[in-house]
Amino acid sequence: MNSFSNEEFDFTFLDEGFTAKDILDQKINEVSSSDDKDAFYVADLGDVLKKHFRWYKALPRVTPFYAVKCNDSKAIVKTLATLGAGFDCASKTEIQLVQNIGVPPERIIYANPCKQISQIKHAANSGVQMMTFDSEVELMKVARAHPKAKLVLRIATDDSKAVCRLSVKFGATLKTSRLLLERAKELDLDIIGVSFHVGSGCTDPETFVQAISDARCVFDMGTELGFSMHLLDIGGGFPGSEDVKLKFEEITNVINPALDKYFPCDSGIRIMQSLADTMLHQLSRWQLTNCKKSCIKEQSGSDDEDDTNGKTLMYYVNDGVYGSFNCILYDHAHVKPVLQKRPKPDEGCYSCSIWGPTCDGLDRIVERFDMPELQVGDWMLFENMGAYTVAAASTFNGFQRPAIHYVMSRPAWQLMQQIKEQGFVAEEEEQDVSTLPLSCAWESGIEHHPAACASTSINV
């Protein structure tokens, strides 16, 4: 793996005792002294490292493939590449991004079931062979543009228990799968495995069990037709934070026995997963309160028809649903603000709503939230804004995407260097990284009192 270079990204190197809260305060002071008080992110690369170890502990048989679409930040892609992760790419541009940092083509899957012929040709010319399909039309395109491709058949699942359903758009039924396998045989194409996705925000782990069972059926169909089936992609849908009903380990505790039952270790089947939120969690973003309104009656635009006679407040901030908070529209995210200033013990709270900066009435971040009264120029924190936020942000109304400031602790950086030089070895996978201070933000919290220590800005 190529070493880091200062053309790729830079981060703030945190000394022992220094927390993400300190960095946030430092950045706020810097921004507050300028005329352009823009929203910004603080991204903890150490958290990505910690999640990587957590992954291997919970799913030792499953190789993670990072879904580039959820956040194509070069710093994050480079970090995961150094850790040995694979990459789930959906376009020519994503393939180029990953290959430009030195990722070999065998660690890339072109996981878009419906691709342009020109982009299929680009994958072929770039040496990327693994790619998904779910229709006969796609088979015909691949036969024409990339006949040596290693194809993965995406099957539909029961995603009725998911927040974001995907099988309404992608995936072949079991009956259609047999027809597609037969057609691939006629076209002399190579089918190497099966993929599925139970939907984002899956709330029932048994959905994975049924999908794995269905994949086994398709494997048997393929083997019967003479294909060498050896790859299973169990998709995404895993949670990346702790404030969810169904925890990461609760899902993996159901998946592992299902894998052992339908694809035992001695079967020689390689198992992979396209992940997003699971790896990318501890990104926090700050934004400035630009304006506020005080109302005596219920705010115009609220969906709640209850009559209130008390004081309510409307806050306007400098990022919204057309920017980083598109996750509210696209991924049904529910965000909660945390205040930079600690409220006074006797300070009252008001019913508040929070709005983005554009002139569109749809641009509402929070409909109702109780908090103390703020002043223009105060800052709010929104945590866990890593996946599917800034990657899908637009510049509607001329508002630019927030800048991202990366941080990493010294132990995390030292371990990264070790992995870069020696690879991700079994001894590292087995160690209990929960005791290592890899992540500067992991235990810090917004209420944490800053420790007295220094930070150094470093280019890597």
Automatic annotation (TrEMBL):
Modified residues (N6-(pyridoxal phosphate)lysine): 69
Gene3D superfamilies per record: Alanine racemase (3.20.20.10), Lyase, Ornithine Decarboxylase, Chain A, domain 1 (2.40.37.10)
Documented EC number(s): 4.1.1.17
CDD domains: PLPDE_III_ODC
Listed GO MF terms: ornithine decarboxylase activity
GO biological process annotation, one example: putrescine biosynthetic process from arginine, via ornithine
Domain Orn/DAP/Arg decarboxylase 2 C-terminal: 310-386
Keyword Cell membrane appears in the UniProt entry: no
Family: Belongs to the Orn/Lys/Arg decarboxylase class-II family.
Annotated function: Catalyzes the first and rate-limiting step of polyamine biosynthesis that converts ornithine into putrescine, which is the precursor for the polyamines, spermidine and spermine. Polyamines are essential for cell proliferation and are implicated in cellular processes, ranging from DNA replication to apoptosis.
Protein name (Swiss-Prot/TrEMBL): ornithine decarboxylase
Organism: Chelonoidis abingdonii (Abingdon island giant tortoise)
Upper lineage: Eukaryota, Metazoa, Chordata, Craniata, Vertebrata
Gene giving rise to this polypeptide: ODC1
